[in-house]
Sequence to fold (415 residues):
Amino acid sequence: MKAAFDRARQLLEETRGERRTRTSEGFRPAERALPRVGSPFDIPVAQNISSYLGALNPLAGPVDPKTESVWLFDTTAYHPVHPYPHAKQPWQAPFRAAFFKKGTGRDMSKIVADIADKIGLKEGEGDAREQGEKTIAQRLQPFVDVVAPARWAEVKLPDGKTVKLGPGGRSATTEQTVNISSKCNEGAVIEIEAVNEGITPHGSMEVYFAEEEGWMVISDIDDTVKTTLTPSPTGILRTTFLLPPSPISAMPALYTHIDTLLNPTWFYLSASPYNLYPFLRQFIHDHYPCGPILLRDASWMDLSGFFLSLTAGTEAYKKGRMEVLHGELPKRKVLCVGDSTQSDPEAYGEIYRKYKGWVKKIFIRKVTDVAEMDTNQKNSPERFEKAFRDVPRDVWQIFEDPNELYAAVDALKGT
Fold:
């Protein structure tokens, strides 16, 4: 039911442009052709039914380290800001976690072979096929593992206290605001570990500290900092599950320059599902300034939902996420970076108009080297003018080469 609700909501939020792309590229038949990777019936009955109660679930229990695991997602600590004068509030942060059954899910071999066939790996190619299937299996595992709703885990805070995260609800994810007693200052980073470290296969949660004022970067991922360069279902499968991730040329150097010059707090905002968190986190840590990666709570155990998450309702999703960030850090000066393949211009333009003075600069990468993309429509001046209506022309800039942006970035210093 949760997956069906997510799917219905995303389709209701689908924009006209997204609908056109999904139709022309054949996403609906591609979604129907993907293999099933899980079912609610794979979850124990008591956990499945009681998960509807969320945090009030009386049947919830701790993660079993022998059979279950928990992912801890990086986050940012901030001081709550009130509309009236007040003393500085203690640090707080949204703590997010997801719970899984270990080594579960359906027969991987058939699913991997199906994806390999769709990507174009030919039978009889020997080592290439074998190695490709190993890579696919590794990246596909988070989509196949059975989620573990009605579970919770304890983590250790800097003052030695512990806090319980969860229990997870229908999607086996949880998010809650936690107060952090710490004397950390702007730019500090601490690690939050589970009390039982053996339950976190991807390690601890990193908490980045951001004071009320300063710069903040909100960056898209696909085709902004990471090469995807395809709007087609087959191309997305290939870049996600097979090819080594690669940064957009010259973007790592630009982001290093921004980090050095403005000392911002970073957020990476993507419509990709949370299943890709370990993969994307490693990529960001390898190539870019670190910061929380905000991904979509959708498509657990649902491979068809992977396409839907990336292609439907992305504008509404991103605006919603940025509204939350504004509530947490309303006094920050914001630099938004995105690209023309999806709805970044429209989302950033709407947030600029809604929160006057919050967004100071917008950079949009004009993606031109995608054969299947309707560049005439996606990159048309009319599209950008409409997306950025009532946004001053000196606030937004369209670029193809990141080296075009250094002067604009330098001009932000001291503003």
Summary: The radius of gyration is 21 Å.
